[in-house]
TrEMBL record:
Key word ATP-binding present: yes
GO MF annotations, alphabetized: ATP binding; sequence-specific DNA binding
Protein name per the record: Sigma-54-dependent Fis family transcriptional regulator
Pfam hit, one: HTH_8
Domain of life: Bacteria
Originating organism: Bacteroides intestinalis
PANTHER family with a match to the protein in the record: ALGINATE BIOSYNTHESIS TRANSCRIPTIONAL REGULATORY PROTEIN ALGB, TRANSCRIPTIONAL REGULATORY PROTEIN
One BP annotation, GO: phosphorelay signal transduction system
Keyword terms of this UniProt record: Activator, ATP-binding, DNA-binding, Nucleotide-binding, Transcription, Transcription regulation
Length: 456
Protein backbone atom coordinates (compact mmCIF):
# COMPACT_ATOMS: atom_id res chain seq x y z
CA UNK A 1 0.00 0.00 0.00
CA UNK A 2 1.24 3.50 -0.84
CA UNK A 3 2.31 5.86 1.93
CA UNK A 4 -0.55 7.94 3.34
CA UNK A 5 1.49 11.07 4.00
CA UNK A 6 1.12 13.08 7.23
CA UNK A 7 -2.04 12.43 9.24
CA UNK A 8 -3.55 14.54 12.04
CA UNK A 9 -6.10 12.74 14.26
CA UNK A 10 -8.42 14.89 16.40
CA UNK A 11 -10.52 12.95 18.94
CA UNK A 12 -11.27 13.36 22.65
CA UNK A 13 -11.14 9.60 23.25
CA UNK A 14 -7.56 8.57 24.08
CA UNK A 15 -8.33 4.90 23.38
CA UNK A 16 -9.40 5.84 19.85
CA UNK A 17 -6.22 7.90 19.38
CA UNK A 18 -4.06 5.01 20.58
CA UNK A 19 -5.83 2.45 18.35
CA UNK A 20 -5.64 4.64 15.24
CA UNK A 21 -2.01 5.51 15.88
CA UNK A 22 -1.14 1.83 16.18
CA UNK A 23 -3.14 0.91 13.08
CA UNK A 24 -1.89 3.68 10.80
CA UNK A 25 1.76 3.91 11.88
CA UNK A 26 3.04 1.41 9.25
CA UNK A 27 1.31 3.34 6.45
CA UNK A 28 1.74 7.00 7.38
CA UNK A 29 4.75 9.25 6.94
CA UNK A 30 4.03 10.89 10.33
CA UNK A 31 1.10 11.00 12.73
CA UNK A 32 0.10 13.73 15.20
CA UNK A 33 -2.84 13.55 17.61
CA UNK A 34 -4.94 16.16 19.41
CA UNK A 35 -7.58 15.57 22.09
CA UNK A 36 -9.28 18.94 21.64
CA UNK A 37 -10.17 20.92 18.50
CA UNK A 38 -8.49 24.07 19.79
CA UNK A 39 -5.12 22.51 18.83
CA UNK A 40 -6.07 22.16 15.16
CA UNK A 41 -4.73 25.55 14.03
CA UNK A 42 -1.40 24.91 15.77
CA UNK A 43 -0.91 21.55 14.05
CA UNK A 44 -2.04 22.85 10.65
CA UNK A 45 0.59 25.59 10.89
CA UNK A 46 3.49 23.55 12.28
CA UNK A 47 2.74 19.99 11.08
CA UNK A 48 0.85 20.71 7.82
CA UNK A 49 -1.04 17.39 7.56
CA UNK A 50 -2.07 15.81 4.27
CA UNK A 51 -5.16 14.24 5.86
CA UNK A 52 -7.15 15.21 8.97
CA UNK A 53 -9.23 12.56 10.75
CA UNK A 54 -11.74 14.62 12.73
CA UNK A 55 -14.18 13.45 15.40
CA UNK A 56 -17.61 15.09 15.12
CA UNK A 57 -18.49 15.12 18.82
CA UNK A 58 -16.45 16.50 21.71
CA UNK A 59 -17.34 17.66 25.19
CA UNK A 60 -20.26 19.96 24.43
CA UNK A 61 -22.79 17.25 23.58
CA UNK A 62 -22.79 13.64 22.57
CA UNK A 63 -24.52 13.31 19.25
CA UNK A 64 -25.24 16.53 17.27
CA UNK A 65 -21.82 16.80 15.58
CA UNK A 66 -21.95 20.61 15.75
CA UNK A 67 -18.42 20.94 17.15
CA UNK A 68 -17.14 18.83 14.27
CA UNK A 69 -18.77 21.14 11.73
CA UNK A 70 -17.33 24.20 13.49
CA UNK A 71 -13.86 22.61 13.41
CA UNK A 72 -14.29 21.76 9.72
CA UNK A 73 -15.14 25.39 8.97
CA UNK A 74 -11.99 26.51 10.84
CA UNK A 75 -9.82 24.03 8.92
CA UNK A 76 -11.14 25.12 5.52
CA UNK A 77 -10.54 28.77 6.41
CA UNK A 78 -6.87 27.94 7.01
CA UNK A 79 -6.54 25.62 4.00
CA UNK A 80 -9.43 25.58 1.55
CA UNK A 81 -8.03 22.42 -0.07
CA UNK A 82 -7.60 20.40 3.13
CA UNK A 83 -8.65 16.74 3.07
CA UNK A 84 -10.87 16.20 6.14
CA UNK A 85 -12.45 12.83 6.99
CA UNK A 86 -15.12 12.86 9.70
CA UNK A 87 -15.45 10.11 12.34
CA UNK A 88 -18.47 9.51 14.59
CA UNK A 89 -20.16 6.76 16.55
CA UNK A 90 -23.53 8.37 15.79
CA UNK A 91 -23.61 8.12 12.02
CA UNK A 92 -26.71 8.68 9.95
CA UNK A 93 -27.39 9.53 6.32
CA UNK A 94 -28.46 13.12 6.95
CA UNK A 95 -25.31 13.85 8.91
CA UNK A 96 -23.12 12.26 6.25
CA UNK A 97 -24.76 14.32 3.48
CA UNK A 98 -24.40 17.51 5.53
CA UNK A 99 -20.71 16.72 6.17
CA UNK A 100 -19.93 16.32 2.46
CA UNK A 101 -21.85 19.51 1.60
CA UNK A 102 -19.87 21.37 4.28
CA UNK A 103 -16.59 20.40 2.61
CA UNK A 104 -15.59 17.11 4.26
CA UNK A 105 -13.93 14.59 1.95
CA UNK A 106 -15.51 11.47 3.47
CA UNK A 107 -17.22 10.00 6.52
CA UNK A 108 -16.15 7.01 8.66
CA UNK A 109 -18.41 5.45 11.32
CA UNK A 110 -17.03 4.11 14.62
CA UNK A 111 -16.10 1.36 15.14
CA UNK A 112 -14.34 1.27 11.78
CA UNK A 113 -13.47 -1.60 9.49
CA UNK A 114 -9.71 -1.66 8.94
CA UNK A 115 -9.78 -2.24 5.16
CA UNK A 116 -12.45 0.39 4.60
CA UNK A 117 -10.57 2.92 6.74
CA UNK A 118 -7.31 2.33 4.83
CA UNK A 119 -9.12 2.55 1.48
CA UNK A 120 -10.72 5.85 2.51
CA UNK A 121 -7.35 7.27 3.61
CA UNK A 122 -5.73 6.06 0.38
CA UNK A 123 -8.38 7.91 -1.64
CA UNK A 124 -7.81 10.96 0.55
CA UNK A 125 -4.06 11.14 -0.09
CA UNK A 126 -4.65 10.73 -3.84
CA UNK A 127 -7.09 13.62 -3.71
CA UNK A 128 -4.58 15.78 -1.83
CA UNK A 129 -1.89 15.07 -4.41
CA UNK A 130 -4.19 15.65 -7.36
CA UNK A 131 -5.18 19.03 -5.92
CA UNK A 132 -1.51 20.02 -5.84
CA UNK A 133 -1.15 18.93 -9.46
CA UNK A 134 -4.22 20.94 -10.45
CA UNK A 135 -2.75 24.02 -8.75
CA UNK A 136 0.45 23.61 -10.77
CA UNK A 137 -1.48 23.19 -14.01
CA UNK A 138 -3.66 26.22 -13.25
CA UNK A 139 -0.55 28.31 -12.73
CA UNK A 140 0.87 27.15 -16.05
CA UNK A 141 -2.43 27.82 -17.84
CA UNK A 142 -2.59 31.34 -16.37
CA UNK A 143 0.91 32.01 -17.66
CA UNK A 144 0.26 30.50 -21.08
CA UNK A 145 -2.91 32.55 -21.47
CA UNK A 146 -1.03 35.73 -20.71
CA UNK A 147 -2.35 36.35 -17.18
CA UNK A 148 -0.17 38.65 -15.16
CA UNK A 149 2.75 40.64 -16.45
CA UNK A 150 6.50 40.92 -16.40
CA UNK A 151 8.49 37.78 -17.22
CA UNK A 152 5.79 35.32 -16.19
CA UNK A 153 5.82 33.88 -19.73
CA UNK A 154 9.26 32.40 -19.02
CA UNK A 155 7.40 29.34 -17.82
CA UNK A 156 6.32 28.60 -21.40
CA UNK A 157 8.65 25.91 -22.64
CA UNK A 158 8.92 22.55 -24.34
CA UNK A 159 12.72 22.34 -24.30
CA UNK A 160 14.52 19.56 -22.41
CA UNK A 161 16.01 22.18 -20.07
CA UNK A 162 12.56 23.48 -19.04
CA UNK A 163 11.05 20.01 -18.82
CA UNK A 164 13.79 19.20 -16.32
CA UNK A 165 12.74 22.26 -14.27
CA UNK A 166 9.08 21.17 -14.38
CA UNK A 167 10.02 17.62 -13.33
CA UNK A 168 11.97 18.95 -10.34
CA UNK A 169 9.04 21.16 -9.28
CA UNK A 170 6.79 18.10 -9.45
CA UNK A 171 9.14 16.20 -7.13
CA UNK A 172 9.13 19.11 -4.68
CA UNK A 173 5.36 19.58 -4.54
CA UNK A 174 4.90 17.92 -1.14
CA UNK A 175 8.04 19.25 0.50
CA UNK A 176 8.44 22.09 2.94
CA UNK A 177 12.20 22.38 2.38
CA UNK A 178 13.93 25.72 1.82
CA UNK A 179 14.74 26.23 -1.85
CA UNK A 180 17.36 28.36 -3.61
CA UNK A 181 16.57 29.35 -7.21
CA UNK A 182 19.59 30.21 -9.35
CA UNK A 183 19.49 31.85 -12.76
CA UNK A 184 20.42 34.90 -14.79
CA UNK A 185 18.43 38.13 -14.75
CA UNK A 186 15.20 37.88 -16.72
CA UNK A 187 14.84 34.08 -16.62
CA UNK A 188 11.69 34.15 -14.46
CA UNK A 189 12.94 33.10 -11.02
CA UNK A 190 9.99 34.87 -9.38
CA UNK A 191 7.53 32.86 -11.48
CA UNK A 192 9.19 29.61 -10.46
CA UNK A 193 8.99 30.72 -6.81
CA UNK A 194 5.22 31.19 -7.17
CA UNK A 195 4.86 27.79 -8.86
CA UNK A 196 6.70 26.16 -5.97
CA UNK A 197 4.36 27.91 -3.54
CA UNK A 198 1.24 26.95 -5.48
CA UNK A 199 2.02 23.24 -5.35
CA UNK A 200 3.29 23.19 -1.76
CA UNK A 201 1.48 22.18 1.45
CA UNK A 202 1.42 25.90 2.33
CA UNK A 203 -0.63 26.91 -0.70
CA UNK A 204 -3.52 29.16 0.38
CA UNK A 205 -1.50 30.69 3.19
CA UNK A 206 0.53 33.91 2.92
CA UNK A 207 3.06 34.31 0.10
CA UNK A 208 5.22 37.32 0.97
CA UNK A 209 8.03 38.68 -1.22
CA UNK A 210 10.96 40.98 -0.55
CA UNK A 211 13.17 42.26 -3.37
CA UNK A 212 16.46 42.63 -1.52
CA UNK A 213 17.97 44.45 -4.48
CA UNK A 214 15.55 47.36 -4.09
CA UNK A 215 15.52 47.81 -0.28
CA UNK A 216 18.21 50.07 1.24
CA UNK A 217 20.23 48.29 3.93
CA UNK A 218 19.05 50.67 6.65
CA UNK A 219 15.41 49.71 5.94
CA UNK A 220 15.93 45.97 5.59
CA UNK A 221 15.66 45.14 9.31
CA UNK A 222 12.42 47.07 9.80
CA UNK A 223 10.94 45.52 6.62
CA UNK A 224 11.87 41.98 7.62
CA UNK A 225 11.22 42.10 11.38
CA UNK A 226 8.80 45.02 11.79
CA UNK A 227 8.86 47.71 14.45
CA UNK A 228 7.00 49.12 17.45
CA UNK A 229 5.62 52.62 17.77
CA UNK A 230 8.43 55.04 18.59
CA UNK A 231 11.22 52.67 17.50
CA UNK A 232 12.52 55.47 15.25
CA UNK A 233 11.43 58.97 14.22
CA UNK A 234 8.75 58.04 11.66
CA UNK A 235 7.43 54.98 13.54
CA UNK A 236 4.04 56.48 14.45
CA UNK A 237 2.33 53.11 14.84
CA UNK A 238 3.50 49.48 15.17
CA UNK A 239 4.01 47.44 12.01
CA UNK A 240 4.49 43.70 11.55
CA UNK A 241 7.52 42.73 9.45
CA UNK A 242 7.40 40.51 6.37
CA UNK A 243 8.57 37.46 8.32
CA UNK A 244 5.76 37.86 10.84
CA UNK A 245 3.18 38.40 8.09
CA UNK A 246 4.43 35.27 6.27
CA UNK A 247 4.11 33.02 9.33
CA UNK A 248 2.36 29.81 8.35
CA UNK A 249 3.18 30.50 4.72
CA UNK A 250 6.11 31.22 2.40
CA UNK A 251 8.66 34.05 2.34
CA UNK A 252 10.33 34.74 -1.02
CA UNK A 253 13.65 36.58 -0.73
CA UNK A 254 14.56 37.74 -4.22
CA UNK A 255 18.19 38.65 -5.03
CA UNK A 256 19.48 37.36 -1.69
CA UNK A 257 23.05 37.71 -2.99
CA UNK A 258 22.71 41.48 -2.42
CA UNK A 259 22.30 41.09 1.34
CA UNK A 260 25.09 42.62 3.45
CA UNK A 261 27.02 40.43 5.91
CA UNK A 262 25.46 42.14 8.95
CA UNK A 263 21.94 41.54 7.61
CA UNK A 264 22.88 37.96 6.69
CA UNK A 265 23.77 37.37 10.35
CA UNK A 266 20.39 38.70 11.53
CA UNK A 267 18.50 36.64 8.96
CA UNK A 268 20.42 33.50 9.98
CA UNK A 269 19.59 34.08 13.67
CA UNK A 270 15.89 34.43 12.85
CA UNK A 271 15.90 31.24 10.75
CA UNK A 272 17.72 29.22 13.43
CA UNK A 273 15.75 30.45 16.43
CA UNK A 274 12.42 30.66 14.57
CA UNK A 275 11.78 33.84 16.51
CA UNK A 276 12.16 37.55 15.75
CA UNK A 277 12.16 40.82 17.66
CA UNK A 278 10.46 43.87 16.22
CA UNK A 279 12.63 46.98 16.31
CA UNK A 280 12.02 48.77 19.61
CA UNK A 281 10.65 45.64 21.33
CA UNK A 282 12.20 43.27 23.86
CA UNK A 283 9.50 40.65 23.32
CA UNK A 284 10.21 37.93 20.77
CA UNK A 285 7.61 36.71 18.29
CA UNK A 286 7.55 33.07 17.06
CA UNK A 287 7.68 32.60 13.28
CA UNK A 288 7.08 29.66 10.98
CA UNK A 289 8.03 30.37 7.37
CA UNK A 290 9.18 28.34 4.42
CA UNK A 291 11.99 30.18 2.62
CA UNK A 292 12.35 30.39 -1.13
CA UNK A 293 15.36 32.48 -2.14
CA UNK A 294 16.64 33.54 -5.54
CA UNK A 295 19.78 35.14 -6.93
CA UNK A 296 21.49 35.78 -10.23
CA UNK A 297 24.88 35.89 -8.49
CA UNK A 298 27.45 33.10 -8.34
CA UNK A 299 26.66 32.48 -4.70
CA UNK A 300 29.49 29.99 -4.11
CA UNK A 301 31.96 32.50 -5.47
CA UNK A 302 30.55 35.03 -2.99
CA UNK A 303 31.12 32.48 -0.20
CA UNK A 304 34.72 31.90 -1.35
CA UNK A 305 35.35 35.65 -1.33
CA UNK A 306 33.84 36.00 2.15
CA UNK A 307 30.89 38.06 0.94
CA UNK A 308 28.21 35.49 1.76
CA UNK A 309 27.99 33.36 4.89
CA UNK A 310 28.42 29.66 4.24
CA UNK A 311 26.21 28.73 7.22
CA UNK A 312 23.39 30.86 5.77
CA UNK A 313 23.82 29.19 2.38
CA UNK A 314 23.41 25.79 4.05
CA UNK A 315 20.16 27.02 5.60
CA UNK A 316 18.58 28.35 2.42
CA UNK A 317 19.65 25.77 -0.17
CA UNK A 318 18.27 22.45 1.03
CA UNK A 319 17.25 22.14 -2.63
CA UNK A 320 18.78 24.12 -5.50
CA UNK A 321 16.83 24.79 -8.68
CA UNK A 322 18.72 26.07 -11.74
CA UNK A 323 16.68 28.05 -14.30
CA UNK A 324 18.31 27.82 -17.75
CA UNK A 325 19.07 31.01 -19.72
CA UNK A 326 16.96 31.59 -22.81
CA UNK A 327 19.89 30.88 -25.17
CA UNK A 328 19.90 27.24 -23.95
CA UNK A 329 16.20 26.69 -24.55
CA UNK A 330 16.21 26.23 -28.32
CA UNK A 331 12.77 26.50 -29.93
CA UNK A 332 11.27 27.93 -26.73
CA UNK A 333 12.52 31.27 -28.11
CA UNK A 334 10.06 30.98 -31.01
CA UNK A 335 7.21 29.81 -28.74
CA UNK A 336 7.74 32.83 -26.52
CA UNK A 337 8.15 35.20 -29.48
CA UNK A 338 4.85 34.00 -30.98
CA UNK A 339 3.15 34.41 -27.62
CA UNK A 340 4.40 37.98 -27.17
CA UNK A 341 3.55 38.83 -30.78
CA UNK A 342 -0.08 37.77 -30.25
CA UNK A 343 -0.30 39.65 -26.97
CA UNK A 344 1.05 42.94 -28.34
CA UNK A 345 -0.80 42.64 -31.65
CA UNK A 346 -4.03 42.56 -29.61
CA UNK A 347 -2.86 45.38 -27.34
CA UNK A 348 -1.87 47.71 -30.20
CA UNK A 349 -4.60 46.49 -32.59
CA UNK A 350 -2.18 45.30 -35.28
CA UNK A 351 -3.07 42.67 -37.88
CA UNK A 352 0.01 40.47 -37.40
CA UNK A 353 0.00 36.70 -37.86
CA UNK A 354 3.58 35.70 -37.10
CA UNK A 355 7.25 35.78 -38.09
CA UNK A 356 8.96 34.94 -41.36
CA UNK A 357 11.35 31.97 -41.44
CA UNK A 358 14.30 34.36 -41.70
CA UNK A 359 13.08 36.34 -38.68
CA UNK A 360 12.83 33.16 -36.61
CA UNK A 361 16.35 32.19 -37.63
CA UNK A 362 17.63 35.60 -36.54
CA UNK A 363 15.93 35.28 -33.13
CA UNK A 364 17.43 31.81 -32.67
CA UNK A 365 20.96 33.06 -33.47
CA UNK A 366 20.86 35.93 -30.97
CA UNK A 367 22.29 35.05 -27.48
CA UNK A 368 19.60 36.95 -25.46
CA UNK A 369 21.74 38.28 -22.58
CA UNK A 370 18.57 39.77 -21.02
CA UNK A 371 16.71 36.47 -21.39
CA UNK A 372 12.89 36.39 -21.51
CA UNK A 373 12.55 39.97 -20.30
CA UNK A 374 14.65 41.18 -23.24
CA UNK A 375 12.68 39.03 -25.69
CA UNK A 376 9.43 40.48 -24.38
CA UNK A 377 10.60 44.07 -24.86
CA UNK A 378 12.06 43.22 -28.29
CA UNK A 379 8.74 41.77 -29.48
CA UNK A 380 6.74 44.72 -28.15
CA UNK A 381 9.01 47.17 -29.99
CA UNK A 382 8.85 45.12 -33.20
CA UNK A 383 5.04 44.99 -33.11
CA UNK A 384 4.74 48.75 -32.48
CA UNK A 385 7.10 49.69 -35.31
CA UNK A 386 6.31 46.83 -37.71
CA UNK A 387 4.05 46.89 -40.78
CA UNK A 388 2.32 44.10 -42.61
CA UNK A 389 1.11 40.72 -41.42
CA UNK A 390 4.52 39.16 -40.73
CA UNK A 391 7.57 40.37 -38.81
CA UNK A 392 10.79 40.23 -40.86
CA UNK A 393 14.49 40.17 -39.83
CA UNK A 394 14.83 43.94 -40.30
CA UNK A 395 12.17 44.43 -37.60
CA UNK A 396 14.74 43.21 -35.06
CA UNK A 397 17.78 45.38 -34.40
CA UNK A 398 20.24 43.89 -31.92
CA UNK A 399 23.25 45.62 -30.39
CA UNK A 400 26.18 43.61 -31.72
CA UNK A 401 29.23 43.48 -29.45
CA UNK A 402 32.57 43.54 -31.23
CA UNK A 403 34.91 40.74 -30.29
CA UNK A 404 38.00 41.71 -28.30
CA UNK A 405 41.13 41.44 -30.44
CA UNK A 406 43.39 38.69 -29.14
CA UNK A 407 47.13 38.78 -28.90
CA UNK A 408 48.86 36.07 -30.85
CA UNK A 409 50.22 34.40 -27.72
CA UNK A 410 46.67 34.11 -26.31
CA UNK A 411 45.53 31.85 -29.13
CA UNK A 412 45.92 28.25 -28.00
CA UNK A 413 44.98 24.86 -29.34
CA UNK A 414 41.15 24.64 -29.39
CA UNK A 415 41.02 21.21 -27.74
CA UNK A 416 43.42 22.41 -25.05
CA UNK A 417 41.24 25.46 -24.36
CA UNK A 418 38.17 23.24 -24.18
CA UNK A 419 39.86 20.81 -21.80
CA UNK A 420 40.98 23.65 -19.49
CA UNK A 421 37.49 25.18 -19.46
CA UNK A 422 35.79 21.86 -18.63
CA UNK A 423 38.32 21.02 -15.91
CA UNK A 424 37.93 24.47 -14.33
CA UNK A 425 34.13 24.25 -14.42
CA UNK A 426 34.25 20.81 -12.74
CA UNK A 427 36.53 22.19 -10.03
CA UNK A 428 34.36 25.23 -9.38
CA UNK A 429 31.20 23.12 -9.23
CA UNK A 430 32.84 20.45 -7.02
CA UNK A 431 31.78 17.77 -9.49
CA UNK A 432 28.15 18.95 -9.82
CA UNK A 433 27.40 18.36 -13.52
CA UNK A 434 24.42 20.72 -13.72
CA UNK A 435 26.35 23.59 -12.18
CA UNK A 436 29.45 22.86 -14.31
CA UNK A 437 27.31 22.97 -17.45
CA UNK A 438 25.87 26.29 -16.29
CA UNK A 439 29.38 27.75 -15.85
CA UNK A 440 30.25 26.67 -19.40
CA UNK A 441 27.00 27.95 -20.89
CA UNK A 442 26.05 24.56 -22.35
CA UNK A 443 23.50 21.86 -21.51
CA UNK A 444 24.34 19.05 -19.14
CA UNK A 445 24.07 16.53 -21.98
CA UNK A 446 26.57 18.53 -24.07
CA UNK A 447 28.93 18.50 -21.09
CA UNK A 448 28.70 14.70 -20.86
CA UNK A 449 29.65 14.45 -24.54
CA UNK A 450 32.63 16.78 -24.10
CA UNK A 451 33.90 14.82 -21.06
CA UNK A 452 33.67 11.61 -23.07
CA UNK A 453 35.40 13.18 -26.10
CA UNK A 454 38.23 14.66 -24.01
CA UNK A 455 38.68 11.46 -21.96
CA UNK A 456 38.22 13.27 -18.61
Amino acid sequence: MEQLGKILIVDDNEDVLFALNLLLEPYAEKIKVAVTPDRIEHFMTTFQPDIILLDMNFSRDAISGQEGFESLEQILRIDSQAVVIFMTAYADTDKAVRAIKAGATDFIPKPWEKEKLLATLSSGIKLRRSRCEVNLLKEQVEVLSGAGSGVEESIIGESAAMQEVFATIEKLRDTDANILILGENGTGKDVIARLLYRCSPRYGRPFVTIDLGSIPEQLFESELFGYEKGAFTDARKPKAGRMEVATGGTLFLDEIGNLSLSMQAKLLTAIEKRRINRLGSTQSVPIDVRLICATNADIRHLVEEGNFRQDLLYRINTIELHIPPLRERGNDIILLADHFLQRYARKYQKEMRGLTREAKAKLLRYPWPGNVRELQHTMERAVILGDGSLLRPDNFLFQASSPRPKKEEEVLNLEQLERQAVEKAMRLSEGNMTRAAEYLGITRFALYRKIEKLGL
